[in-house]
Write a structure and sequence with these properties.
Elements (H helix, E strand, L loop, with lengths): L6 H14 E7 L3 E5 L5 E5 L4 E5 L1 H11 L3 H10 L1 H14 L3 E7 L2 E7 L7 H14 L4 E7 L4 E15 L2 E11 L7 E9 L4 E4 L5 E3 L18 H21 L2 H15 L8 H11 L4 H14 L4 H11 L6 H15 L3 H14 L1
Parallel strand pairs: 4-6
Antiparallel strand pairs: 1-5, 2-3, 3-4, 5-6, 7-8, 8-9, 9-10, 10-11, 10-12
Helix pairs in contact: 3-4, 5-6, 8-9, 8-12, 9-10, 10-11
């Protein structure tokens, strides 16, 4: 599992961001994108006399809102900044619509629907950390806050089993949240493999809550505020998250996941077709060519030539990638591979044999 911040550093950053961020509801016809001609863009918001830099996520969301294809948007952003501002401003102003602008440290970090439901990282942390502390022996194995998400990955060593002799795994849970529209609040079971410190996220057993709700209200300076109805809904949501965290590390659910691992261990792969099987599986599950090479190296190095070995090679490679977000995606991909539909796995092996 990839290392992130210490829990103390995470808490400090969440607190800092909680104080530094500010949200606005503004009409698109008072927003003007500008460029300095050197690759830096900003949003001028006339209604609040504000100017904000633009983070990558906000750029993506502006492109989606204006229906500018992402490849063309990125090309204009790099090669023709003035053309990008001309396009964006035309579509922002042609049909005015209320949008939520989420800002942090002077930058626009998200450009969202005015109905976007704010579920902040501080709320999630304040809910789940006391529960984790109450679990005997439980510890936060890895945590991070990126530009797009917050993650808490927790292991409970008291719930442990063996996939095979000398291959112990422990139960855990991963809690994630995005304040910028990059995903719902999720609580997913996590399997931690001791021999290589791999984490595997069982997304098909997760609880999620989407950031969508009623139209947000604003005060006179367009700042978003919370009403009593939303506060009551927040309390109900936090109770559900609390229950989901507890349920994620249940013995019964853990035993079922371990049994899936044992079954995958019995799905052997002939040595001669391993490279081709890794290549084909990687394409099927969105693992890049460069990542696939790392996965193959780990699978051969581990010597576990089976579906289980391939899934673990993916989660092991997750430790090697630079991005914590991508690392977490690969931990979930490992589980998707582990639980691949039998017919699809059979087809991959058959194709690999034909092409070798």
């Amino acid at each position: 599992m990839k290392n992130g911040r210490s829990l103390t550093d995470l808490a400090l950053e969440i607190e800092r961001q909680q104080q530094a961020k500010k949200d606005y509801i503004v009409s698109t016809d008072v927003i003007e994108m500008k460029s300095d001609g050197e690759g830096r863009f900003s949003l001028d918001v006339d209604a609040i006399n504000g100017t904000f830099g633009i983070k990558d996520t906000a750029h993506d969301q502006i492109g989606q809102y204006t229906e500018i294809p992402s490849k063309y948007y990125d090309r204009m952003r790099k090669e023709s900044p003035e053309l990008l501002t001309l396009n964006v401003n035309h579509w922002l102003h042609s049909t005015p619509e209320r949008r939520m602008l989420r800002t942090l440290d002077g930058d626009a970090r998200a450009f969202l629907s005015s109905r976007y439901r704010r579920i902040d990282n501080a709320q999630i942390a304040e809910t789940v950390l006391p529960i984790i502390m109450q679990m005997k022996g439980a510890k936060v194995e890895s945590c991070e806050i990126t530009d797009t998400k917050m993650y808490l990955k927790v292991i409970n060593p008291r719930i442990q089993s063996n996939v095979d002799v000398g291959d112990a795994v422990q139960a855990g849970v991963v809690i994630s949240n995005s304040e910028v529209g990059r995903g719902s609040v999720t609580v997913s079971p996590l399997i931690f493999r001791l021999v290589c410190s791999n984490g595997m996220i069982a997304q098909d057993s997760q609880v999620r809550r989407y950031h969508i709700g009623k139209e947000n209200d604003v005060d006179l300076d367009m700042t978003v505020f919370t009403d009593e109805t939303l506060e009551a809904d927040d309390r109900a949501l936090m109770l559900k998250i609390r229950d989901a965290v507890t349920a994620a590390v249940e013995q019964t659910r853990f035993d079922r996941l371990v049994e899936q691992m044992r079954e995958a261990k019995d799905a052997k792969v002939e040595a001669r077709i391993v490279p081709k099987a890794v290549e084909l599986t990687s394409k099927q599950f969105g693992v890049t060519t460069f990542e696939s090479e790392g996965v193959l190296g780990h699978m051969i190095g581990d010597g576990e030539l089976s579906l289980y070995g391939l899934a673990n090679a993916i989660t092991r490679h997750a430790q090697d990638v630079q991005s914590y977000d991508r690392s977490t995606e690969l931990e979930a991909t490992g589980y998707r591979v582990l639980t691949i539909a039998p017919q699809l796995w059979k087809s991959i092996l058959s194709t690999a044999r034909k092409e070798v």
